[in-house]
Amino acid sequence: MAKVHPIRPPVEEPPLELHARAMDNLRFIRETMERAGSFTAVSGWGQVVIGCVALAAAALAGRMGPGAGWLALWTAAAVLCVGIGVVSTAWKARAAKVPMLSGPGRKFALSLAPPLVAGAVLTAVMYRAGMGAMLPGTWLLLFGAGIVTAGSFSVRVVPAMGVCFMALGGAALFAPAGWGDAFMAAGFGGLHVVFGTVIARRHGG
Predict the structure, then answer these.
(1) What is the band of 152 on the pLDDT scale with cuts at 50, 70, 90?
(2) Widest CA span in the chain
């Protein structure tokens, strides 16, 4: 019986070099560990500084009363605190030799950003509608929501802090309008100082 032979002989692929396969395995292991890890570069001492800035802003805002100056003061304090948070986190990540914007760090930032953007939009809308008294509760509630979602990629104390922010925000929305700065001092000031101290002591600064 005649044998059937292919027209073209099969092309044999060259075997992968050993070091190339090893690099692929190492890359896979590193990416898996990054996806499964927690973002531990949240700076506790940075949170304490943010809390002190918020307490100072609350003291000044309480003397000013509602209006454009009050909103400008809290906006400036928010921008300053965001800068402190970014710089202090970058400093801790660099000291710990942990990538800041890869793996859990990127997920942390992407989870925190949407509530903050929503808060900025609602601030403009509510202020134009004469609902400035609702802003402290709205800010605390949205910031807490962002911390809870972002905190799922970080150490346990971070989402716990977010829950406390949300509770304060909910209470502020039902409290008298004149208590707004007190809630802001308790939330952005007190909670940042307390939880920042806990993070610094338990998670290395």
Answers:
(1) confident
(2) 104
Please provide residue 39's backbone torsions phi and psi, each rounded to the nearest 5 degrees.
Answer: -85, 105
Dist. CA 148–CA 165, nearest whole Å: 9
pLDDT tens-place string over residues 178-191: 999 999 999 999 99
User: CA 79, CA 21: separation in Å to the nearest integer?
Assistant: 47
Give the Cα separation of 34 and 68 in Å (integer): 45
**If you write DSSP's letter for every residue of 151-191 in order, what string do you get?**
HTTB-THHHHHHHHHHHHHHHHHHS-GGGHHHHHIIIIIII
3-state helix, strand and coil shares in percent for the chain, rounded to the nearest 5: 75, 0, 20
Dig out the tokens for 165 from the structure.
Answer: 């922010």
Cα–Cα distance measured from residue 53 to residue 65, given in angstroms and rounded to the nearest whole number: 18
- 122 backbone φψ class: left, alpha, beta (φ>0; ψ -120 to 50): alpha
* Total residues belonging to the chain: 205
Nearest to 78 by CA among 50, 113, 59: 50
Helix, strand, or coil here: 39?
strand
- Predicted TM-score of the model (pTM): 0.79
